[in-house]
Amino acid sequence: MTQPSRLWIKNPLDTFTGNDLDASGGIVIEDGRIAEVLGSGRHPAVPCEQVFDASQHVLLPGLINSHHHFYQTLTRAWTPVVNTPLFPWLQNLYPVWARLTPKDLELATKVALAELLLSGCTTAADHHYLFPGGLEQAIDVQVDVVRQLGMRATLTRGSMSLGEAEGGLPPQSTVQAPDVILADSERLVREYHEPGDGAAIQIALAPCSPFSVTTDIMSASAELARTLDVRLHTHLAETLDEEEFCREMFGLRTVDYLEHVGWLTDRTWLGHGIHFDDDEVARLGAAGTAVAHCPTSNMRLASGIARAVELEDAGVPVGLGVDGSASNDASNMILEARQALYLQRLRYGAESVTVDRALGWATRGSARALGRPDLGELAPGKQADLAMFRLDELRFSGSHDPLSALLLCGADRADRVMVGGAWRVVDGTLPDVDLQQLIAEHSAAARRLVSG
Ligand SMILES: [Zn+2]
């Protein structure tokens, strides 16, 4: 779709800017960026060729998903793992996932991104760590799908190198040799990683978790990430089983292990980050290591409640993630913000965990976790990534404060979504995607995958 050179998104019903700016007069978009943020009653400094009347829309920065496994949309609500915690959940699923083909991954990535986009998400991080025979080009497949949908993504080159034979959790058929992992990581960064503002594709390095990789691959990944100047991602402190595993295998608690392998830095963001003690919260904050809070997954697998407010107060950038779609089992960012609000209220009380705080995790916090200062806020110079919601559905009827209604009444679908100045969701639909066909192909692939 061609874009006007200047677009005024005028007088929104309500806004969340992620900062102190007042955007009640709307925002002006130019060349894919936010040119102006207008206070109440103000008009653009220069006349705009196009005006979008936003008087029926709540305007947010595009939501940012900081932790996911797109491929898992193929194993949502799979009977053998509906009622299990993490370790048996993984052990049941590994052999199924080991059969993943490039076509499966393409369909799964498209479903996850389409679902995210329709929920107001403009940037997503994916943690992909499965490269069975025939799927060596997994990240290349994902890059193509992200480009088709016109979103932004941090695609992480995940890895597993510690199989059952060496005391790890994953079956031997799903692990790779360290030199293969590192060579492919470097290839992907050189081929696809876009540094700097406005990037559509970024690559990060992401050994899967302490119980599925060797210490060597953790250290070598950290070194390679420094050399290539890309970010580091892994699962950490998700469950007490993992803490126990680290104690037995390495003789260390999780954060000591992280420090030991050179990961306790501001280059790292961690998936989950639940089981930290006071000292560890302070150390993570001092290092500027980020955490992707995944409330639904943590409730689904009964993993625990992350110390999100204390982490944030200690200086940890806290983002929000829907996590893999086999432990959520949705990929809906605005609903995830609602879950974060409620789960964290149980821990810290209603007054500490405000609607603004939860939306901050879903936008600015996730942008910080992904190392994206150009995203996550409505401010001049930031990328024009926007999520806009209408409140004319039954569930909002009788609501008063529009911004609060988004989370409290359970908004689940954006009406308009813009990425870099281009509309990607229009009237609650994806103009370029045949959803019925996608659902049919993806469902068939999912059935094939679990039936072996
Ligand atoms: Zn995960």
TrEMBL record:
EC category name: hydrolase
Organism (species): Saxibacter everestensis
Residue intervals of the Amidohydrolase-related domain: 58-395
GO molecular function annotation: 8-oxoguanine deaminase activity
Superkingdom to which the source organism belongs: Bacteria
InterPro entries hit by this protein: Amidohydro-rel, Metal-dep_hydrolase_composite, Metal_Hydrolase, MTA/SAH_deaminase
CDD domains: ATZ_TRZ_like
Name recorded for this polypeptide: 8-oxoguanine deaminase
Keyword line: Hydrolase
EC number: 3.5.4.32
SUPFAM superfamilies assigned: Composite domain of metallo-dependent hydrolases, Metallo-dependent hydrolases
